[in-house]
Each structure stands twice: as structure tokens, then as C-alpha cells.
Amino acid sequence: YYIIVDTEALKTLVDSIGGVYFDVPIDMKYTDKKQGLYINLKAGYQLLDGNKAEQVVRFRHNQDGTSYSFEYGDNDTGRMKTQRSFITETIKQTLKFRNLFKSKTIIDSVFKNILIKSHLLKTVVIQHIILSVLNSLVQLMVVIKQKSLEVLLL
Q: Cα dihedral angle (84, 45, 91, 67), rounded to 10 degrees?
């Protein structure tokens, strides 16, 4: 089973949740005019919008040939590690309470641009999103109930 994520889906998803906080592992500077690829990011923890998210996941090496450290995983290995880390962070941040009311936009953007080659996997993804939304609703009800109790106690 596999999932193909179009970079437009990633950009749309990241922008729809207001960006993703991510620790960019190294300075990234690369230009390929033929592909329309312009990567220019500084290392460190930062809020990435959709365009910067695409830069992070497409980066392999710098214009001068330098890349990730050997320990991190050079070139393709480093890129795959960064991609997994970024996707993991994106999923975690997408499922946060603050994005509860953006659920329809998020689901639409995900399934418009992502090919999931397994009916079972697609079902699992949808169930996970629904459970996360329900969990957020429960958290909201607890907060509202706590606020109501605070008001009654005052």
C-alpha cells in the first residue's frame, strides 16, 4: 500500500491550518529554474507556510553540493527523513483542536490531491480524521462545562 501526495495538496493543507511549526534541520538553498524550484530556508524551528513546506520536502542538497550531515542521512536518505518528520508534524498539527472547524476544508484538500492506493487505507484515514474531530468536540464540551461551572460557582 502507498500514498501519493501531490505537493499542491501539501501546500493547501499547510495553508488551510495556518502553517506548520517545524525544525528545519539545515540551511537549505537551491535553485532549479527548469523545474521552477527555488529553495531558500534557514535552519531552525519556524512556522512554515505551504510554499516553504514544499521547499522542505523537495530539498535534497544545496546549490554548492553540501547536504545533510552523514549522521542525519545524506541526500536522498536525509530528504526522506525530513519528509517523514514534516508529514508527521503536519498530521499532528492538523489534528489539533484549533483546526476543528476547518475539518471540511482539510478533508476536501487532502482527498482532492492525494491518491491512496488502498480502499482499506482510505477508510482508516477517514476514520482517524473523524475520531480526531470527535475527540476535539469532547474537549470543547469539557472546556464549556468547566467554564459553566466556574460561572455558577462565582
A: -20
**Using CB atoms within 10 A of its CB, is residue 22 exposed (0-12), middle (13-18) or buried (19+)?**
buried
Q: What global pTM score does this model have?
A: 0.70
Taking only the tens place, the pLDDT of each residue in 23-40 is: 999 999 999 999 889 999
Say how far apart CA 102 and CA 15 lie, in whole Å.
11
Beta bridge partners of 116: 3
Pick the range with the lowest mean pLDDT from 78-82, 119-123, 132-136.
119-123
Q: Which three cell numbers stand for residue 12?
A: 493547501
8 A C-beta contact, residue 115 and residue 46: no
* Residues recorded for the chain: 154
User: Crossing angle of helices 7-16/75-94, nearest 10°?
Assistant: 40
- The rounded Cα 77 to chain-centroid distance in angstroms is 19
